[in-house]
Amino acid sequence: MEDFTVTQNGKPLNENQYTWNKSTKTFSSTENNLVLDFSDVGNCTFNTGYSCIFKTGVDCTFDTGFNCAFKTGDDCTFKTGVDCAFDTGRRCTFDTGRRCTFNTDCNCAFNTGVDCVVVRRDVFEVIELEENVKIKLNDCRIKGYTVIEDVKYIEIDGKKIEISLESYEKLKESLV
Length: 176
Hints:
Blueprint: E1 5-8, E2 11-12, E3 19-21, E4 26-28, E5 34-38, E6 45-47, E7 53-56, E8 61-63, E9 69-71, E10 77-79, E11 85-87, E12 93-95, E13 101-104, E14 109-111, E15 116-120, E16 125-129, E17 135-137, E18 145-147, E19 151-156, E20 159-164, H1 165-175
Parallel strand pairs: 4-6, 5-7, 6-8, 7-9, 8-10, 9-11, 10-12, 11-13, 12-14, 13-15
Antiparallel strand pairs: 1-2, 1-5, 3-4, 14-17, 15-16, 17-18, 19-20
């Protein structure tokens, strides 16, 4: 007996409509409108359709369609479509579409579409996210965030040097 439940339209999902790999802890289904309760299971990976609701433990990875809702522990990674809502712990990473809402703690990183906001519970702060601007929230109990610039590395005389993506492109143009 597994420590999770999966329902669709209020009924248990038929086992032939999903796969559960016990060794990798990977749940996969092309079904939509699922309710997945994995709250006692951590270190899971989820591949699902859209309009799903997740309740999970820590250290989970999600690759989903749009309009999903998540209530998770710490250290989770999300790659989703649009219109998703997140209520998470710390150290999560988000790469999402537009119109997403994040209710989260500190030390999270975001790369989102338009009309997304972060609600920081630890400092009672709301941050409106800009489209395609990567940010990382400040440490716990410190308001604000840092923009994460895209960087490239070049090697000169055996030394690795970090430069901005813009500088890299200009350097590349000048050498061609």
